[in-house]
Write a structure and sequence with these properties.
Structural class: alpha+beta
Largest sheet: 10 strands, mixed
Strand content: 5-15%
Number of strands: 21
Bound molecules: adenosine-5'-diphosphate, magnesium ion
């Protein structure tokens, strides 16, 4: 998202009459995009980029508190203002973007990385370090840009600096002041319109972490506030006993994550990549877990995902198929055609998810909608036109609601050469949603040149993956080598504390994508299994304690022998001795000095799909076994075969190349060691810090001073300044590497 244009956003009740207008024109724009880029755009470079989200935290060492900073958001404007600090961003190839929270910033590289250049994979961390230094240079030294997934005490009494009261009309939250929301009108409108469409406030209930003194009662809910009608919602069904109750968009959209976007060579390659990465989404959510504390409570889960999902859930009661609260409207903020049959709980739905005979005033069928706009993907795009052709219809085994009108239009005679049934289904599903914010100045658009109506719906479908089509261009602007093409965005990961970790996870996903495109594994499993994996990934320490559905490791359509030798020891052999012993390409590595990882397939608890889909530990999936390569070996082999300079593909005789490879080796070691449990996730590390603190009273609560201690530790880790803390999070080997390698960068 770029900087936001100003305009007049419409309130939900004014904007809803344009819902179909936005959808219809959005689909026209999509068709025009496909006409402009579909068949002809065939040879794009593998470019990629990351997005890192920061929270600005003010630390008071005297009073021992740490709070979210809500009066320094001008730094975003300054870093984009040619009269002020834009030069700092430009000179350092970084770009700052607004985010939902006023205390948040997002930063990306200004130009995407070249995925065919080894140097660029190593440059990622340098770019991330620069983003932190540039933003810090705009801030006083007691305010830190921290990459922590959730702020532990968000929503507790005073948690902002300066302080603000939770009495705002946009969110009507009992806990979060509207002053935490980005000042741009888009964001309070988004917040209010979600609530208005839904017909009540959002309600998120997370199970409390049960400890010996835990009351299993969220005693932070004010009982007697009478400011808005919604104030009583927690007492009429919104809050659940034993759970931490949250009532506002900020609890989700105020958390930070790490996203990676990659460009396919053409649309077909992008579709295959999208589908292949689907299998990895939950695995990477679990492997990046970093959010065990919400609203001052330790909770009985490790990640942010379902919180964000609930925080932007604009579905009405009828769409969710639940009874409305007493005196609340079943249809939320939708206008219903008075001739509609009043639906019953057991009312039948048709193949598109429509409730038979129930329509909005504008004639749109009202549907059952099983998932929030922010959730896991619902269907594969299918690799039917790609060389792999692995996809089978039975893999799309959930029937998400579809906008029939959109589906029919995309599948019509006129358009079906551009949209096969899988693409029609994909966009037909995204377009069941209503636009959430519409600017009055932007109602009428030139569908040949603009794509805001399409993006309005597309970019408020926040799923685990996003299939990003190109934009529309004038004939003069249309240069495939300079404009973004068909891209896939990987969105489940939680943000990590250090630039080293964020670079490691970014590298892992982009290199794995490169390896997927090269080696063409078959990762397809029924998509319902991926949904189950997403649930498992929420559990405490799921990375070690759960087993996840995955394509049976011997069904990847790869030959294990082709990957032997490409484990982490490859780096040492290549760097220190040259890789002669790998022999000629295609020959199997036979040197007995390799110690294959000792993992064996420990337990296959469930087998489905004729044995093709099974359950594995993340260790098995990532690190492989003596029989199966694991994802890491795919990554290492793609480095060894595609990313080394041609004159050094058999010998490493340059210190510079060695340094680059050692960096990447440590990125992969971090991923590998988190997968095998040698080192903890951030979630585990934070939870242990709370449980072991002398300030903790075994009541699941994180007090202001305990929060301060956690934030201080996070800052020390971020700055790599405390060896003892680093060893607790990364173990000795990685810590040694971090402290002995030169990771300082100077700004340009
Ligand atoms: P959004 O918020 O819509 O996901 P951003 O602009 O914040 O998008 O981030 C997109 C990421 O994609 C950035 O890291 C950017 O460098 C990267 N990117 C830009 N152009 C391309 C491209 N052609 N191919 C792949 N990645 C790209
Ligand atoms: Mg972004
Ligand atoms: Mg963002
Ligand atoms: Mg993004």
């Amino acid at each position: 998202m770029g900087l936001l244009s100003l305009g007049t956003p419409l309130d939900w009740h004014d904007s809803k009459k344009y819902n179909d207008h936005v959808r219809e024109n959005g689909i026209t724009q999509l068709i025009n995009i496909f006409k402009q880029h579909g068949p002809t755009r065939t040879n794009d470079t593998f470019l990629w980029g990351d997005e890192v989200e920061y929270m600005l935290v003010t630390i008071d060492d005297e009073k021992k508190w740490a709070r979210l900073t809500i009066d320094k958001d001008h730094i975003l404007d300054d870093l984009n203002d040619p009269q002020k600090s834009l030069h700092k961003s430009v000179d350092n190839n970084v770009l700052f973007h607004p985010e939902y929270g006023r205390f948040m910033i997002e930063a990306t590289p200004a130009k995407p990385y070249n995925g065919n250049s080894l140097a660029d994979y190593v440059y990622v961390e340098e770019n991330m370090i620069k983003r932190r230094i540039v933003s810090q240079s705009e801030l006083p030294s007691n305010i830190k840009p921290i990459t922590l997934t959730t702020f532990p005490r968000m929503g507790c009494n005073i948690f902002t600096s300066p302080s603000a009261k939770p009495i705002g009309p946009a969110s009507q939250s009992l806990f979060l002041p509207d002053e935490i929301i980005n000042r741009h009108v888009r964001f309070p409108t988004l917040t209010a319109n979600i609530r208005k469409r839904r017909g009540c406030k959002v309600a998120i209930n997370l199970p409390m972490y049960p400890d010996i003194n835990t009351k299993l009662l969220d005693d932070s809910i004010p009982k007697s506030r009478d400011l808005f009608k919604s104030d009583h919602e927690p007492f009429i069904g919104a809050s659940k006993p034993g759970h931490v109750y949250m009532d506002s968009m900020g609890f989700g959209m105020g958390s930070s994550c790490l996203q990676i976007t990659m460009q396919g060579k053409n649309i077909e390659e992008a579709r295959y990549l999208y589908d292949s990465l689907a299998a990895i989404t939950a695995i990477m959510l679990s492997l990046s877990a970093a959010a065990p504390i919400f609203k001052g409570f330790l909770v009985n889960q490790d990640v942010r995902w379902n919180v964000v999902s609930g925080a932007v859930d604009d579905r009405t009661f009828i769409e969710r198929n639940i009874e409305p609260y007493p005196n609340y409207n079943l249809f939320g903020g939708l206008n219903v055609d008075l001739h509609s049959k009043l639906p019953s709980k057991t009312q039948s739905i048709n193949e598109f998810g429509d409730l038979n005979g129930v329509f909005t005033k504008e004639g749109k069928p009202i549907q059952r909608v099983p998932k929030s706009r922010y959730d896991s993907i619902d269907s594969y795009l299918a690799d039917v036109n790609f060389s792999t052709n692995y996809f089978k219809d039975e893999y799309n085994d959930i029937n998400p609601p579809i906008n029939e009108k959109v589906f029919n239009r995309l599948s019509s005679k006129e358009n079906h050469h551009l949209f096969d049934k899988y693409l029609a289904k994909h966009f037909g599903h995204l377009f069941i949603r209503d636009p959430l914010v519409l600017f009055s100045e932007r109602i009428n658009q030139d569908n040949e040149l603009e794509n805001d109506h399409f993006e309005n719906i597309q970019s408020t479908n926040w799923q685990t993956l996003r299939f990003k089509p190109p934009a529309l261009y004038t004939p003069e602007e249309l240069d495939f080598s300079k404009t973004p093409g068909w891209r896939v965005e990987f969105r489940p990961m939680e943000i990590q504390l250090t630039d080293f970790e964020n670079a490691a996870y970014s590298n892992f996903i982009s290199l794995l994508s490169k390896a997927i495109i090269k080696f063409k594994p078959n990762f397809y499993i029924p998509i319902s299994k991926i949904e189950l994996n997403m649930k498992l990934a929420h559990n405490v320490d799921s990375v070690l304690d759960e087993k996840f559905w995955f394509k049976a490791l011997d069904q990847w359509n790869l030959n294990n022998n082709d990957f032997i030798g490409y484990d982490l020891s490859w780096f040492d052999r290549f760097i220190y001795e040259g890789n002669d012993e790998l022999g000629k390409e295609g020959e199997v590595y036979m040197n007995g000095t390799i110690t294959p990882t000792s993992n064996t397939i420990e337990s296959i608890t469930d087998v489905d799909d004729g044995g093709i889909t099974q359950k594995y530990s993340i260790n098995e999936i990532i690190n492989g076994t003596d029989k199966f390569p694991g994802l890491i070996r795919l990554v290492i082999k793609v480095i060894a075969t595609d990313l080394l300079p041609t004159d050094q593909s058999h010998h490493c005789d340059s210190e510079e190349l060695a340094r680059k490879l050692i960096t990447i080796k440590h990125y992969l070691l971090l991923i590998s060691n988190r997968a095998n449990g040698k080192i903890p996730t951030i979630a585990h590390w934070l939870r242990s810090k709370v449980l072991q603190s002398h300030l903790y009273k075994q009541d699941s609560k994180v007090s202001e001073e305990l929060n301060y201690n956690l934030i201080k530790d996070c800052v020390e880790v971020t700055d790599l300044s405390d060896k003892y803390l680093l060893e607790g999070l990364f173990g000795e080997v990685i810590t040694d590497y971090l402290l002995t390698s030169n990771r300082t960068t100077t700004l340009s």
